[in-house]
Uroporphyrinogen decarboxylase (Pseudidiomarina indica), 354 residues
Amino acid sequence: MSELKNDLYLRALLRQPTERTPIWMMRQAGRYLPEYREVRTQAGDFMALCKNAELACEVTLQPLRRFKLDAAILFSDILTIPDAMGLGLYFETGEGPKFERPLRDVAAIENLGIPDPEQELRYVMDAVRTIRRELDGQVPLIGFSGSPWTLATYMVEGGSTKNFSEVKKLMFSEPAAMHMLLSKLAESVTTYLNAQIAAGAQAVMIFDTWGGVLSPRDYREFSLQYMKKIVAGLTREADGRQVPVTLFTKNGGAWLPEMAATGCDALGVDWTMDLGTARALVQDKVALQGNMDPSVLYAPPARIEEEVAVILESYGHGHGHVFNLGHGIHPGVDPEHALAFIDAVHKLSPAYHR
């Protein structure tokens, strides 16, 4: 494997000194880029793109050709594990992901197997290997998975939802069944992420997109404890380097201290939480990633730079900050505005590292 030419991102996650704040963007390979839309059309559909290692590699590298980003993130989807469990993932235009066979009873949960990452999810590992080779040490590669709770919401609801009625009905009326599902998913995610690390991922991230819809008690019981279990089971060193682990719960600002206590290296923070407040809450025990509102990228470049300045000032001096959006970049954003965002971080952040 090639020597890493830019390890700012990995150093920041481990709270080691950096000369500036590293930056990448959630969904940086995506629909806001015309070159991505071309490849997506060529592939035929989203999952066909995910399952073609060469094309997944191509779209992973596209944003790095345009922008001075400090990390690449595997192009994939959080629903690969449920798909590999046989639930029949498909995408409806304008409606997002759906499952042909949602989980609605205990028997269906009992029958779920743990996917073998080098068998049912081999296409993901092939993509990781291909991307890592083509990156040639330019920047680190981030692998990822959805959290058990977030995966369970899609699997039980059968797709996207606004009120989470089916998954919460299962959680409150059949808690033992819910825990069985979450245990299987925690095992699957641990195996899946370790396989990504073995294939070449140099950092991993767990996206708990829907943890924020739970009460504090239910978050601890049905989301956090399973992420903690995964963190404990992950490979933390590869290629002679530490492999940092980042947890991200959207709308999870209230639980940052408990998340920091899981043994992870970093926490993602969305834009509903002031970054300085978040830093005080976790007491510099972990690095923080975030946290600009993605909608700011609709604003003129001067306004984008102003927001970057506010967030850098909020985090303050010292290391342990990875600049990012508080969630994924919106499809309608002008790539030139993304460039203005990245340039502003490059321009303004060195002052905080002297």
